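Box 3.1 A note on notation
Throughout this textbook, protein chains are presented in two layers. The first layer is the amino acid sequence; the second is a token string describing backbone geometry. Keep the layers aligned when reading.
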Amino acid sequence: MDRSDLEMVNAVRQQGSLALAAQALGLTPSAVTRRLAALEASLGVRLFQRTTRRVSPTAEGETLAQRAAELLRGFEALEAELRERQAEPAGPIRLAATFGFGRRWVGPALARFQARHPAVSIQLQLTERLPDLAAEGLDGAIWLWGAPDQRAGEWVSRRLAPNRRVLVAAPAYLAVHGTPQSPDELAMHHCLVVREHTDALPHRQDHWALQREGESTVRRVAVAGPMTSNSGELVRDWCLAGHGVMLRSLWDVAPLIASGALVHLLPEWSHRDADIHWLAPWQAQSPKRIRLLVAALADAFRDEPWRPAPAPLSAARARPGSRRTR
């Protein structure tokens, strides 16, 4: 039994007629009749019941037809993959990403990828809410947090990079209020809270869940302050202006730490709930352009290019102790 036999069995089952199957295969009805009879004789089973009106599969024929369809799809996928390997990737890639990370890190990475593969076109949608990828015709998303529970069985998820949220404050704030020496001392400081609205955040946002480097235990610290916002960028501006302590992703504040505009507080402590993931609707075989893109993103973010080099000890950090501010 060879591939042509599988194609014949599949065609007869789909068409329900030897004549129509012959037409679909580009053969004569007599050729299909002879080949089917020879296959049944070779296997020693009857595959189809013939009547004057219809040809229907027997139990054995139904089993063979189902397996034939699976094997033929495998042949087609293998041939497509081999052809694709010889060709330059081409076609559109439609993506979603969060505004902040998308603008600062995903956008430049996509520009570099497109320059290497000029036959690929990229459409990037920046949004604060994770779209229904398949329903909106998106190939994938570069997202903070993994797939939501209700999509876990429908989407694939791959972690591209770890993402730590770190504690920062402006030197001007620390000069007045002092520098916290432990997570518990955050309760005595003005903490600027970002009110995020997403199903991926089950925790209370007026509690910061901090972990010490190398430890798995989470310490939850109640925080409060005179100002909150649903805009992370606005909270960052408040922090830069010296209004309080902020918990913010390292990829966002690393340049500000490196420049001295912000001081990294309690550097051994961080919040680790928002790793960067590739999310995509599940499919048996992704196109070559998608596979290459995911590999390029993983390579671009693997070593966390946003991690700052060690900065000189600032005068503000050198000032120990905390003062009660509320």
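The two ends are 83 Å apart (CA to CA). Residues 55 and 140 are 44 Å apart (CA to CA).
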